[in-house]
Amino acid sequence: MKYLKYPVNFKSLLRGSQENFCKIEESIAYNIMMIVTTSFGEIPETPQYGTIIWDLEFNQHIKKRDWEDLVRKSLFESITEFEKRLVLSEVTISLDEIDDKELRSSIRRKANIIVKGSIVDSSVPFNFHTKLNISPISQ
Asked: Is the pLDDT of residue 97 over 60?
């Protein structure tokens, strides 16, 4: 089976070029990243697609541990619902402080996101890792 890469180059796709296609592992990673970077309700046809990260982004009253737990649960549920090619075993979130002097901003947070599971069709282990800069939050 062929899986599309993002962003799709429609000109080359219409010419029949193979450059728009990728392996299942890359396709799953693209979908997980889209879930991570999409807020709930952003896609009107599927309002539950996404994650709670963006609802919590400017919440100054949430503790680090609570933020990590809420986001982990949200990602686990969304990935389970919207990535059926993956048997999800673990989602790990850690929120680390960074001091980015180049941006001349105050201390920000970096979310380290790790997703582990196995591909349904082949039982091949799957690992995904990304880092996401988050706006300042308290504690």
From this structure: yes
Q: Which two tokens stand for residue 97?
A: 């402080």
- HSE-up of 22 (CA within 13 Å, CB side)? 13
d(CA 86, CA 52): 21
CA dihedral 130, 73, 49, 4 (to 10 degrees): 40
**Is pTM beyond 0.70 here?**
yes
pLDDT at 137: 47
Bridge partners (DSSP) of residue 97 are 109
Helix ranges, 37-126 (H): 53-56, 64-82
CA–CA separation, 31 and 139 (whole Å): 31
